[in-house]
Write a structure and sequence with these properties.
Elements (H helix, E strand, L loop, with lengths): L6 E3 L9 H12 L11 H12 L3 H6 L2 H18 L1 E4 L7 E7 L9 H15 L5 E7 L3 E8 L2 H9 L13 H11 L4 E6 L9 E4 L7 E8 L3 E8 L5 E9 L3 E9 L4 E7 L7 E5 L10 E4 L9 E4 L4 H11 L3 E3 L6 E5 L10 E5 L7 E6 L2 E5 L1 H7 L5 E3 L2 E5 L7 E5 L5 E6 L2 E4 L13 H12 L3 H7 L1 E2 L4 E2 L6 E5 L2 E5 L3 E2 L5 E7 L2 E8 L3 H4 L24 E3 L1 H22 L2
Parallel strand pairs: 3-4, 3-6, 6-7, 15-16, 15-17, 17-18, 18-25, 26-32
Antiparallel strand pairs: 1-2, 2-33, 4-5, 8-9, 9-12, 10-11, 10-13, 13-14, 19-22, 20-21, 20-23, 23-24, 24-25, 27-30, 28-29, 28-31, 31-32
Helix pairs in contact: 1-4, 4-13, 5-6, 8-10
């Protein structure tokens, strides 16, 4: 397709109507033609019949003016349905970038199909010397194809795209667009989505079909009942029909009435049934993705908060505030959140660990200084808050070359004050020598870290969320079988992009994990997700005119004129 023709058809599938003129012609040829013919004698009838029978098809068609007008009308109508176009060189940049939004709301109705159709039309209609690049925005911004003229490869990539059950990450698109426009100001950026990009100069191809949606907001299990939350995103009240299935032929049907924009929590008792459980909304709406949710059996072992040794009371109180758990003391080796006065160098029990001091093998001579306590730049972006506290007195310094140790809090010179290593959080200064115990920053730091470093085994039992990167429990590699096929994981890091029940198998055995999709921003289809910011003015010769000129309307006008002419001829023949 590198030598693409400068003309073509926007709707080639309409060529199926070409059988209509042929059918009209055959009806004219094979219809009975018995005309009265007066003869003076019987022997003259043989001469007349021989003359009429000897005429060929062409002679029979020459006198059928109405037939030719009907064939001309049908041909013009079919050409108009095919929507012919001609490329207008000079109006298209040599480099064109296609960015396709794969976020969850694109799965509503025909939004995604309409966007792909627009992208294919641009590929088909652009002049032959154009270079195209393809990028997608799902769980991350991914450049699938750098600039190329190979449109067959681009068409294959477009055919393989699928909507992902993740929230849109529009902030990642702007740097790519600005970088492309900086290197090539005349490049065209095409954005295929259901909402405009905020503050980015590009051509928007917006598909917003379908606005009605109901969604499951939450689905969790306890040892004796299920908790199911449903939401109505429509302004009109709705009567929802729900069904919950589980093991041992467990089936429960419920109905609930929701006002416009309403939400309701349902409790379903469990009597001798076993999971996994699947809940679904039976009402028809435009987004099927959030109409189902999954959960496994509840974990009968509650989470525990265990303190070992003489732990700082400030740290114990902060962890209790962050978790809401009661504190247990003693040498309890069960799974939970463990607090240590000093982190042991080995033989840690399962779970997560928070220590007021690092192991001696990590440390070198302490240093006396003071200054602000700051969150690292990467964590500021991920946790969405800043620490504004002061520290004084001694702090421990780490030996160089410690593997896997990452800073969480640093001073003004980027020296670590709080570090993490695998499932452990370790302080390098005494909390008493800071104003953190009197600040709300400390519980927020601990809560954010616990959410980021959730226990893999506990996370798998309670369920995972689409678009959230998690670490699965057990040694790798793992094989995951889910609703979209089999996934091979060399490590344990996984970011699911589609909800469902996944069966995993690895060296440690096999099991199941439930993945759900909850995103009010994506589920709300009634209004655009974002409002576009004012864009800079676009030049007259860039990105404002179509890449091709379509000529369907002239053929429609000609077909109507031919129809009027045919009607006039038919009316005149009756007189």
């Amino acid at each position: 397709m590198a030598g693409l023709k400068e003309w073509g058809w926007n709707a080639p599938s309409q060529a199926v109507w070409l059988w209509v003129p042929l059918a009209i012609l055959l009806l004219y040829l094979f219809r009975p033609r018995h005309r009265p013919q007066a003869v003076a004698a019987a022997f003259l009838w043989r001469r007349v019949s021989d003359k009429l029978g000897g005429q060929n098809l062409w002679l029979r068609l020459q006198s059928q003016r109405l037939l030719w007008l009907q064939l001309l009308f049908c041909a013009l109508a079919v050409v108009a349905l095919l929507r012919p176009y001609q490329v207008r060189p000079g109006l298209v940049a040599r480099q064109v970038v296609l960015i396709v939004d794969l976020s969850a709301s694109m799965g509503a109705s025909d939004r995604f199909a309409a966007s792909l159709a627009e992208a294919r039309q641009i590929l088909r209609q652009a002049p032959g010397d154009c270079e195209f690049s393809l990028a997608t925005l799902g769980s991350s911004l991914q450049m699938l194809q750098p600039f190329t003229q190979d449109r067959v490869a681009l068409e294959s990539l477009l055919s393989g795209l699928q909507v992902q059950a993740v929230a849109g990450q529009d902030g990642r698109v702007a740097p790519l667009v600005l970088s492309i426009l900086k290197n090539n100001p005349q490049a065209q950026i095409h954005w295929f989505s259901d909402h405009p990009l905020e503050g980015v100069n590009c051509i928007a191809h917006l598909a917003d079909q379908g606005r009605l949606n109901y969604a499951i907001d939450s689905f969790q299990s306890s040892p004796d009942q299920l908790f199911l939350a449903v939401r109505n995103y429509d302004v009109q009240a709705a009567q929802l029909r729900l069904r919950v299935r589980g093991g041992d032929d467990f089936v429960v049907d419920r109905t609930c009435s929701l006002r416009g924009r309403g939400r309701q929590l349902l409790q379903i008792p469990l009597v001798g049934s076993r999971g996994p459980y699947r809940a679904e909304i039976l009402n028809e709406d435009d987004l099927k993705l959030d109409n189902q949710a999954f959960c496994l059996n509840a974990n009968p072992e509650p989470m525990r908060l265990i303190s070992h040794g003489e732990v700082s009371p400030f740290l114990e109180q902060a962890v209790q505030a962050a978790t809401g758990l009661n504190l247990l003391r003693g040498d309890i080796r069960s799974n939970g959140i463990h607090l240590w006065a000093r982190l042991p160098e080995s033989s840690l029990p399962p779970g997560r660990h928070i220590a007021a001091a690092a192991p001696s093998a990590w440390l070198r001579d302490p240093q006396q200084d003071q200054g602000p306590v700051l969150l690292t730049a990467a964590l500021q972006q991920d946790w969405h808050f800043r620490v504004s506290s002061q520290r004084w007195g001694a702090r421990q310094r780490l030996k160089p070359g410690l593997a896997g140790v990452e800073p969480v809090l640093v001073d003004s010179l980027a020296q670590p004050l709080l570090v993490q290593r695998e499932s452990a959080l370790v302080w390098l200064f005494a909390l008493e020598n800071s104003d953190l115990p009197l600040s709300p920053d400390l519980p927020v730091i601990l809560s954010s870290w616990l959410k980021t470093h959730a226990d893999p085994a506990q996370a798998q039992k309670s369920g995972l969320l689409c678009g959230t990167r998690t670490r699965l429990n057990g040694p790798g590699p793992l094989q995951l079988k889910g609703p979209r096929g089999t996934i091979q994981l060399e490590g344990l890091e996984w970011q699911p992009t589609w909800p469902g029940l996944y069966s995993w198998q690895g060296p440690a055995g096999q099991g199941q994990v439930a993945v759900n999709f909850y995103s009010p921003e994506e589920s709300n289809l009634d209004h655009p997700k974002r409002v576009a910011a004012p864009e800079p003015p676009v030049s007259e010769d860039l990105q404002t005119r179509p890449m091709s000129q379509e000529y369907a309307l002239p053929f429609v006008v000609l077909a109507l004129l031919v129809l009027l002419w045919e009607y006039r001829c038919w009316w005149g023949s009756r007189r």
